[in-house]
Structure formats: structure tokens, C-alpha cells
Write a structure and sequence with these properties.
Elements: H1 15-36, H2 41-49, H3 68-81, H4 83-106, H5 111-120, E1 124-126, E2 138-142, E3 145-155, E4 163-172, E5 176-185, E6 191-194, E7 208-218, E8 224-227, H6 233-265, H7 272-300, H8 306-334, H9 345-352, H10 362-374
Parallel strand pairs: 1-4
Antiparallel strand pairs: 2-3, 3-7, 4-5, 5-8, 6-7
Helix pairs in contact: 1-3, 3-4, 3-6, 4-5, 4-6, 6-7, 6-8, 6-9, 7-8, 8-9, 8-10
Length: 382
């Protein structure tokens, strides 16, 4: 398959328009990549050429200076055309948006990372799927640093990644179980990708496992130490920024499914039952759109903490619930024509299932929301 050739554009432009132009090219290859489990590598090259890799870096540090609202709209548009590209790129995008927010609001020492993203257009990987509040992997103290061992699952975009943002558990003699946070270069001889990503949906995201075996992180490179199994302010910040971006992708997937279903339904003989299905689909989709808007409103509050995390996770639950329902109804609205792979609807049906699996899933989310409502502690609810 030929590489996508697109001229660079300024990141100060309309991100949605850029995403739409790129997405129209991505859509030509999305089905083939899905069917062959092929990572969207050529799409990443186009995203780099268009300046979207550094879109969330502050202008003062060489980036596009775009905020979470604009980045969410960009990802939502990309998802209309290629779900896998949008989801994989959301993982890089939130790993840029989080330090950008911390630089602007908390004076965090993240300027070198952000400048490097802008100057070199490096791709940041997230190990969030395996490194939620509990953490994973092992850190062993050695002279000058920590030797890391761990298998990081769901590392979306792994084949294109330059730097993996991850963590490991360390048994501190003084403080007890701690989680250390750091970056690991994917070029390290002690890091390798295990190609296990053969899945129901989002097949082209390259969300393989990354194995770290003996990589040493210098003491100075440890960005954060926190108590294991407890919420930390940094994680409330992560929750506030990351999930509105990730779930904007699923909203875009559902919107594209709706568009396909309506196009197919219009070719059918008018039927009151089909009309009702379309109305139910629109209603579910509107619920998802409202929930996503509420998540973005919570981000604009700029107050990371348990209350904001609660709002974000309620929104995450509602976006997942309503987008999955909307796509199920899209299948019914389209009728038998939607069952053919050529229509693209069944691919959206598979891709939307991924909305179920990001933190916080339904059980922990309900416990967190209930604890907030009842005034109970949430430090260990995740």
C-alpha cells in the first residue's frame, strides 16, 4: 500500500479541517488495515507531516498551542474516517496535553519534554491500560537508579513510539510499596514489542504489549514517586485530561456509524419501524454528545481532584453506554445491508466495543460516584 503523501500545514490552522482532509485519505485504507491487523504507520507519518503531533504543545515551546477542546474535536473528526488512527493517536495526544496543562497551571518541570515533542515530533506511548492507580511491573534499586522489569499491555501505537511513559512498583524500606513514574526510550536494548494485538475491534491501533527487561532508569529520571494503590493529584490530572480526549474518539465512531446507517436506510422503502429505530439511534447519540460536552466542561474548570474525576468518569460511563447503544441501533436501522463488511458499519460496531474497557469500568466507577455522593473516602477506589 502506498504511503499517504500530504503537504505539511501549520498547526495554527483549524484542527478539524486538517483532520477531515487527512481522514478522507485515511478512510481509503482503513478497511484493509483492519482486515490485515496492519498498524496505521502511514497515517502516523501524515499526522507528523501535518503538525498534529505537536498540536497540544504550548506555542511558547514551539507547538500549536491547542487546548483540550480543540484536540478533542480533532480526534472526534479523525474517528469518523479511521477509528484505529484516532484511538491510537489519542494516546499520544493526551500524553502531550497532560504535561502542557501541568506546565501552564502547575509550573511542572516538563518543558524539556514538550520542547522535544515540538522539535523532533516524537511519538509518546501510554501504558495506561496496565498502569492505572495500582501500577504494574517491578523496580529494583541499583547503583544510580532503578532496574525495571514489566510487561505493559495495551500500548497503543507501539510500532511508532519513541518514548513510553510508564511506571513500576518499588518496595521502599522506609515508605512501603511505592509507584515510580518515568519514561523509557523504545530504542533501549532492554525494551521490545510483543506483537499480540489480534482483537475484535480497533485492530489497526498497534496496541501490542511492550516488554521491559532490565532497563535502568537513573534516579534523576524518576518524575514521580507515589504510594501504591492510592489516588494522587497527578492521577486526578490525568483523569481530567485524558478521558475526554479518548472518549471523543468513541463519539466520532458512533457518529460515523449513524451517518452510514442513515444513508443505507434512505435506500429502503419507507417504514415506520425503521423511522422509529432511526429516532432511537439519534436519541442515544445525543446522550453521548451531551455527556462528552459535560466532560469537556469539567476540563475547563481546571480543578483536578476527586470531584472533577467523578464528573469525568460519569461522563466516560455515559459516552460508552450511549455510543454502544447508538451503534447497535445503527445496525438495526441499516438492516441487512449493514451486515456486509463493504458498508463499513460492522467495523464501527466492532470498534465501538473498545469503549467498555478503559478505566474506570462500570463497577469501580459506580463505587466512586456512590462514595462521593455519600461523603465516603475514594482514595482507594479505582
Amino acid at each position: 500500500m502506498a504511503a499517504v503523501e500530504l503537504k505539511p500545514v501549520a498547526t495554527s490552522g483549524d484542527l478539524v479541517a486538517i483532520a477531515r482532509r487527512l481522514g478522507q485519505e485515511f478512510a481509503k485504507h482503513a478497511a484493509e488495515m483492519d482486515e490485515t491487523d496492519t498498524f496505521v504507520a502511514t497515517h502516523y507519518e501524515a499526522l507528523k507531516a501535518a503538525g498534529l503531533v505537536e498540536a497540544g504543545v504550548p506555542k511558547e515551546l514551539g507547538g500549536g498551542g491547542h487546548g483540550v477542546d480543540e484536540l478533542a474535536a480533532m480526534l472526534r473528526e479523525l474517528a469518523h474516517h479511521c477509528s484505529s488512527t484516532a484511538l491510537a493517536f489519542s494516546m499520544h495526544t493526551h500524553q502531550v496535553a497532560i504535561p502542557a496543562w501541568r506546565w501552564a497551571h502547575q509550573k511542572a518541570p516538563v518543558e524539556p519534554l514538550l520542547k522535544r515533542i515540538a522539535a523532533e515530533r516524537i511519538i509518546i506511548l501510554s501504558s495506561g491500560g496496565s498502569d492505572w492507580i495500582a501500577g504494574s511491573g517491578k523496580a529494583e534499586k541499583v547503583e544510580g537508579g532503578y532496574k525495571i522489569t514489566g510487561r505493559k499491555v495495551f500500548s497503543s501505537g507501539a510500532p511508532a513510539g519513541n518514548l513510553l511513559m510508564t511506571s513500576a512498583l518499588y518496595e521502599s524500606p522506609e515508605e512501603g510499596p511505592m509507584v515510580l513514574h518515568f519514561g523509557v526510550p523504545m530504542t533501549s536494548p532492554n525494551v521490545r514489542i510483543i506483537p499480540v494485538w489480534k482483537t475484535l475491534g480497533m485492530r489497526a491501533t498497534g496496541s501490542h504489549d511492550v516488554m521491559i527487561e532490565g532497563h535502568v532508569v537513573p534516579d534523576a529520571a524518576v518524575a514521580l514517586k507515589r504510594k501504591a494503590g492510592e489516588w494522587h493529584l497527578v492521577f486526578h490530572t490525568i483523569a481530567m485530561i485524558a478521558f475526554p480526549l479518548i472518549y471523543s474518539v468513541y463519539l466520532g465512531v458512533a457518529e460515523s456509524a449513524r451517518d452510514i446507517a442513515l444513508e443505507l436506510a434512505r435506500k429502503r422503502r419507507p417504514d415506520p419501524h425503521v423511522t422509529q429505530l432511526a429516532g432511537r439511534m439519534e436519541t442515544e447519540l445525543r446522550g453521548a454528545q451531551m455527556a462528552q460536552s459535560a466532560m469537556l466542561a469539567a476540563v475547563r474548570g481546571n480543578k483536578p481532584g476527586p470531584e472533577t474525576t467523578n464528573e469525568i468518569m460519569i461522563g466516560r460511563h455515559l459516552v460508552a453506554k450511549h455510543t454502544i447503544a447508538a451503534v447497535e441501533l445503527a445496525m438495526e436501522t441499516a438492516g441487512g445491508a449493514g451486515f456486509y463488511r463493504a458498508a463499513g458499519l460492522e467495523r464501527r460496531f466492532r470498534d465501538i466495543q473498545g469503549a467498555r474497557f478503559h478505566p474506570m469500568q462500570d463497577g469501580p466507577q459506580a463505587t466512586f460516584a456512590g462514595s462521593i455522593a455519600l461523603g465516603q473516602p475514594v482514595d482507594r477506589v479505582f
